[in-house]
C-alpha cells in the first residue's frame, strides 16, 4: 500500500457515488433583487441624464435667442439685461420689465464666458413650448 494521499480526496467536487449529492442553490431571489436594483439605478441615471440634457438644450436655445436679438449696446459682463418682444422682433434692453410696457420674455446675466445665464422668465413663458423642445420620457 502506498503512503501517497488519494488524489480524489482533494478534488473541489465529489468524485464518488457515495459522496453527498450536489444540490444547486436557488438563485432566483438573488437574480430578482439584482435585476430590480440595477433597473432602479439605471432608471434614475436616465432621469438625471434627461434633466441635464434638457437643461443644456434650454441654455443653448436661450443663448441663441439673445444673440439673435437686436442689441444696440455692448453688454457688460456680470450685468443683467432683459429680452423683449416688440413689433415682431426681439430686443435686448437694460430697461427692467416693470419700467417698460413691452412684452417681457426673460432676464439674463452675461457671464465671463460670454454665455447668457437665465435669471427669470415671464410668467407666460414655458421654455419647452416656447422653443418646441420635447423629449419623450424613458420607458
Give the topology, please:
Layout: H1 28-68, E1 80-86, E2 89-93, E3 103-110, E4 116-121, H2 127-131
Antiparallel strand pairs: 1-2, 1-3, 3-4
InterPro entries: DUF2452 (IPR019534)
Protein name: DUF2452 domain-containing protein
Organism: Haloferula rosea
Give a quick set of tags describing it.
single chain, 139 residues, alpha+beta, four-stranded antiparallel beta sheet, 2 helices, 4 strands, DUF2452, DUF2452 domain-containing protein
How would you describe this protein?
The protein has helices at residues 28-68, 127-131, and strands spanning 80-86, 89-93, 103-110, 116-121. The chain is of the alpha+beta class and 139 residues long. The chain starts with 27 loop residues before the first helix and ends in an 8-residue tail after the last helix. It comes from Haloferula rosea.
Mean pLDDT: 86
Class derived from helix and strand content? alpha+beta
Largest sheet: 4 strands, antiparallel
Name the beta content range: 15-25%
Radius of gyration: 33 Å
What is the succession of H and E elements? Answer: HEEEEH
Number of helices: 2
What spatial order of strands do you see in the largest sheet?
2-1-3-4
Distance between the amino and carboxyl termini: 70 Å
Number of strands: 4
Q: Low-confidence stretches at least 5 residues in length (pLDDT < 50)?
A: none
| Assembly category | single chain
The best one-word shape is: rod-shaped
Helix content class: 25-40%
Protein name: DUF2452 domain-containing protein
InterPro entries: DUF2452
Organism: Haloferula rosea
Pfam family, one: DUF2452
